[in-house]
Structures are given as C-alpha cells and as structure tokens.
Amino acid sequence: MAFQGPGGAGGQYVPPHLRGMAMGAPPPPPPPGQVMGGFGGFGAPGAVYEDHGDRGGRGGYGGGGYGAPRGGGYGGRGGYGGGFGDRRGGFSGPPRGEGGAPGIGGVGFNRPYDDPFKKAEAEKAEIDALYGAENTGINFDAYEDIPVETSGKDVPSPVNKFEDLNLPQCMLDNIKRCKFTKPTPVQRYSITIGLAGRDLMACAQTGSGKTAAFCFPIIASMLLKGYQPAAGRNSRKALPGALVLAPTRELTSQIYDEARKFTYMTGLRPVVIYGGAPAPNQLRDLERGCDMLVATPGRLSDFIERGRVGLSAILFLCLDEADRMLDMGFEPQIRRIVEQEDMPPVGQRQTLMFSATFPKEIQRLAADFLSNYVFLTVGRVGSSTDLIVQHIEYVSPDEKQNTLLDLISTVEQGLTLVFVETKRGADELERILTRNQLPATSIHGDRSQEQREMALRSFKSGKTPVMVATDVAARGLDIPHVTHVINYDLPKDIDDYVHRIGRTGRAGHKGLATAFFTDSDAPLARSLVEVLTETNQTVPGWLQNFAARTPGYGQKSRRGGGRFGGRDFRKDNYGGGGGGYGGGGGGYGGGGYGGGGGYNRGGGGYGGGGYGSGGGGYGGGGYGGGGYGGGGGYGHQSAWD
Asked: pTM to 2 decimals?
C-alpha cells in the first residue's frame, strides 16, 4: 500500500493533515464542534459539488474543508471558503483560492448545510399546521342582507363564486385548503376591482374577510402577469413587488400567516418585518428572497435607511387599517415611504386601502395616494342583524372593579377581551383578576414582542380566557372565540369603540359587547346613541339624557356613515364651486381642499382655519402653505395635537 509524503504521488503537494494517509483513503472526520464547509469533497482538481456545504464552517478548505481559519481553499477551483456576512471565499481557478479576508474569511454564519428536501418538508408541515388551525368559520347567512355600496367610474361587477374569478389553479387549490366555500361581500367586490387594476378604498369590518380581499388580487395579478423578482435570491437588498403596511406587530404577523397560506406552491415568497424582534433574523429572511413584504412603517423605514430594502419594484401597495395608519402619527412616515423614496408614483402602481372606518378627514388624506379609485363600503356585520348585542352600563368609577368581577364570573364559555385606556391600567387589572382566581393576561405597547406573543397564545388557547388590552389589540387582530368584549374604559373616539366591539361577533357569529359608562364619558354619549340606534339596539333612557345635553343632539349624524364605516367624501364635494373638491371658498378648512390656497400652495387650503378650530386648523396656514411644520405647524399647537 502506498503512502503519501510531502510531495504526494507524482510530486503533487499534499496538505500536512493528509500526509501519511493511504492513497485514496477518505479524509478523517472534522474535529468536534467544527462544520464541514466548502463546495465539493477532497479530490482531483475541479471537484464536483459532492457535499453541498454552505459557506465553510470556519473557513473551509475550498474543496471540502475542515474549517481552518482561511478564506479560500486548497483544491482544484479554490471553492467558497466561507466568507463573513455577504463576503464569500474565493471561487478561483488557481490551485489555491483567494478566499475571504484571512482570519475572518471562514467565520461566515458558522451553520451547517440545510438539506433542501428536509427544509421543504419542514416548511410543508408548518404550512399544513396553518391550514389545519381551527377555522373560525363564517356564518354566510348573516351576510346575505349586508348592504354594499360602491362609487367611482366604471366599477367592475362583483362575483358570487371563487371559480368565477380569473384565479390561477394553484390559488384555487389554496382557497380549498383554507376551507373557503364562497367569497364574503367585501371579497366579491374587492377581488374583481383589484384584478381590474383599479385603486381601491374599502371600508369593511375586520373579520369579514379583508385580508383575503386584498391578498387574492395582489397574488393573482403577480402570477397572471408573469411577475419576475427584481432581485435574485440571496441578494443583499430586497426589492419586493408588493408591499403591505399595517400599524402593529401583531397585525403584520397575522397578515403574513394568511399570505403564506395563499402563496403556498405559487413560487411567491412573503416576508414579514416589524419592530420589537431581532433585526438580523429578519434581514436574513429578506436575503432568501422577498416578493411580498408585510411591514410596520417603523421597521421598514429602518431597513430602507440601511439600504436593505428598496421600493423601486413595487407594483402593489396596500394599507391595512388605513384610518389608524393615517391618524395615529404614522402619516409623515407613510408619506416619506410612499412619496420620498423610490416607490413608483400614483398611477404607476396599484394601491389598495382597507379599514373598518373611513372618516371623511382620513379619506381626504388617503386620496393623495390613490388614482381614479373605487370607494367600497360594506355594512357592518350586525348593522342589520343582532349578531353583536351591545349593553351600556352606567357605573361610578369606584364600582368598576367589582362590576367587572361579577360580570366575568358569569361567563361560562368563550374568551373575554377587556379594553382599558392605559398600559398601567392593563397591568393593574390583570393582577386584580388573577388575585380573584380569574386567569388573565394582558397586552400593551410596553410589553416585549415575545411577551405579547405569549399573551396572545395563552389567550387563544383558553389557558387564560381573559385578556386585558389597550388599543394595540383593537385593530385587525383575528382572535377566534371571543364571545364577550368589555369596554372597562370607553375610548375617546366612537370609531375606536366600533373597532373594539368588532373583536366579537366576527365572521357572522354572535357576540356580546358591554361598556362601562361614567360621567367622564359624557362627550361620547351622542355617538353611542347613534351607533346603538343604527344597529337596532336598546338605548337606555339615562344615555339618551346624557346625549340630549350634547350640543347638536337630534341633528344629522356627524359620523356620516350610517350603517357603514364611511361614505365616499367625493359625493359631497363633486361639483366644485363654493366648497367643492378643489373649488373656491369654503371646502375643507375654509380655503377649500385645493381651493383658496390649495394643497401646499398659498395661505388657505388644507387647514386654513378648518381642521380643528380657530385660525390655525390642521397646520396653521394650510397643509404646506405655512402649515406642515411651519406657521401653526404640524405638531406646533395645532388642532392635531
């Protein structure tokens, strides 16, 4: 048997660790704790990809490697010797590859190769778990009488069956996996409008199928139009084709899970990013490829500034809970993302906006991001039925705790969601409930992402059937089996009340909503009476007395939505003239929305004495005309504050 010396057979160089071995013998296993690296095994020059090692463990000897701290490799073609971060070892022709920088070339991510087949099996099992999650079901009978209104030019006709839509077969298969039998009202209209390429502002209660209503047309359009990723897999900068923005971490995670179900076996890859979670993990996920990005505005802005996400390839933009996005301080961030980055402008991308409520002032802001859009409003589930039974109880502040304990003690089944106004109040109420042998958890903005996810899991599973929450949980979350919503503290705004009670009575199922009313809630009395009246609920006489003391009681509803969460503000403004959309005097803010001084021009315009009161309005001398940051200014003692 021949053994190899320093020169090897035929004078060829043999690495020290192979000297003295029998020729043709397999290399010894790597030392404990090190990872096989490099592409291809030891052997002749130009070794094939035998072991498929992914970026050498600690450097890699190019061809197969032990993980010595070298960048390149000994072997026929040098090989990938590892690399640090995005820098790989050399892939060179000479016998010794250049590799990454000596000393750091092999650090890489120090992870073993992931078998693609095992990875695919694991992903399939995860998707199956998503599909297999208990379906809340939809009581379609409750939807039959739900009113729907559309406005705009040439609105596409709705459909009554998924099979009537121009959807790829892989999507129809996923719809069956989701156990969807027929589209809900918002889906009947939204999907056809989206597939027609139209911009859309849709007003529909959460729980009525909104996520599918915007995901289906986006995904289908990308597939039908032969979408090709602008950036390849493993690219340092992600260039998604679709962007979905949502205000909270929980809602982005929920949308992402739904998107994964809808994109299964389509070749499209959704990714989610949000604050409160480790950025490196999300960046690595982006590097693996991103066709559809679901994000919170803050984390997205961060990644854009880092140069890790670009918006130049965006074909579809969607804002979920758009009224909250534009109303809770996100508006400057949204404008920067949509208007000041490299995203294609209005008219060159398709924009979809969804929310349960769209007040007129929010519609005016949202219109800046849309072109020739369709306004769709679907009546609230419960507006023409008794799906959500609402009770308003008059209590004194010092009676609240005992009233809550008595109320929760009577609930035998289902989950109870209790809303409070402050984070401190949420923690305190959780402790009180727990001390009284009522298992409870809480969720609010000061909790870490891990704590919030644990609280949601515990609540959904029924381990803690009571959850105390601030409004962070009021928007968009789909929590099955919430049978009772309690407004321990009433919100200041009636639209927040609508969003809160929408956590129960979801998808056509029945629910109960109870609110504790104190003297300090008197300013909300008139709006509460309007909501109770339009949803065919019993209005307590004492509440009517509170409302009667409100200025303007008995006049036309200020909400403008009736049984809907909003009415197309363009209907009130078409025709120009005095106060028209862009007309002369009057209009939105005294100077007219676009009239007078106009948007970003002159002294009147958007806020010239209007949104708010006095002479300041929204931004003092107009939104841009002395206003947005100047003059009265956005945030400088303006009505917005």
From this structure: 0.61
505: left (phi over 0), alpha (psi -120 to 50) or beta: left
Q: How many Cα neighbours within 13 Å face the side chain of 159?
A: 18
Find how far residue 217's CA is from the centre of its chain: 17
Q: How many residues does the chain have?
A: 641
H or E element, residue 247: none
Q: Which two tokens stand for residue 176?
A: 């069956």
Question: Can you give the pLDDT at residue 205?
Answer: 74
Domains 228-355 and 388-548 share a fold: yes
Is the model more confident about 91 or about 247? 247
Only one residue has tokens 């809602």, namely 251
* CA-based R_g, the chain, Å: 30
Please state the separation of Cα 441 from the chain's center in Å.
24
235 has pLDDT over 80: yes
Closest-CA residue to 184 (of 403, 354, 359, 330): 354
pLDDT tier, 554 (very low <50, low <70, confident <90, very high otherwise): low
Domain residue limits, the chain: 31-111, 228-355, 388-548, 577-641
Q: Per the structure block, which two tokens stand in for 595?
A: 């009239």
* Arch. (CATH architecture) of 388-548: 3-Layer(aba) Sandwich (3.40)
The answer to whether 154 touches 180, Cβ cutoff 8 Å, is no
Look at strands 388-394 and 415-419 and give their pairing: unpaired
Contacts of 286 (CB under 8 A, 6+ apart): 238, 271, 273, 303, 308, 309
* Fold assignment, 228-355: Rossmann fold (3.40.50)
Q: Quick one: three-class SS letters along 376-412?
A: EEECCCCCCCCCEEEEEEECCHHHHHHHHHHHHHCCC
Q: Hey, what amino acid is at 62?
A: G
What contacts 478, CB < 8 A, 6 or more positions away? Answer: 136, 206, 207, 211, 254, 506
Compute CA 109 distance to the chain's CA centroid, rounded to the nearest angstrom: 29
Burial of 182: CB neighbours in 10 Å, binned 0-12, 13-18, 19+: middle
The Cα–Cα gap between 628 and 609 comes to 14
8 Å CB contact between 167 and 216: yes
Measured in whole angstroms, the distance separating CA 375 from the mean position of its chain's CA atoms is 22
Tell which residue, 620, 430, 499, 438, has the closest CA to residue 204. 499
Q: Give the number of other Cβ atoms within 10 Å of residue 555's Cβ.
A: 8
233, 239, 245, 249 alpha-carbon torsion, rounded to 10°: 40
**Among 4-13, 252-261, 573-582, whose mean pLDDT is lowest?**
573-582
pLDDT in tens, 255-311: 999 999 999 999 999 999 999 889 999 999 999 999 999 999 999 999 999 999 999
One-letter amino acid for residue 586 of the chain: G
